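Reopening this one. Same input as before:
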Amino acid sequence: MLQIAVEKVSDVIIGSLALGAVQEEGGDDFTEVPDIDEEMEFAPPKGDAHLELKRVIDKFNVEERQNLVALAWLGRGTFSKEEWDDAIEQAEELNADRISDYLLSMERLGDYLEEGLAELGYSSEEFETGYR
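Same output, byte for byte:
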């Protein structure tokens, strides 16, 4: 089902929660699946923590990035656990090069990922992470 290591998701959770502690409000928590094509605008990076987390996400392969998106959607209630395959299909339609920007535009990304993992029966707290 999940095609990304929980340890990697935990790294993103920790990074996004740290980012959220210093991030200004105003990110976009889309309630529907967006079309993140070349024309969609995202806020510019908000400092070193934002850039570092973007680098972490961009290092993941495309399938892992798509799974992050599907997990975030699951965690915020856009899709249910039973609709996981639909969430993955929708994530596969996104522009893979823009996924990190899209994810980082979510103010509650860490919370959504934690909730998504919980829905699938995983816990991010079980793993030590390498994010710094």
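So the earlier flakiness isn't reproducible anymore. For the record, The two ends are 28 Å apart (CA to CA).
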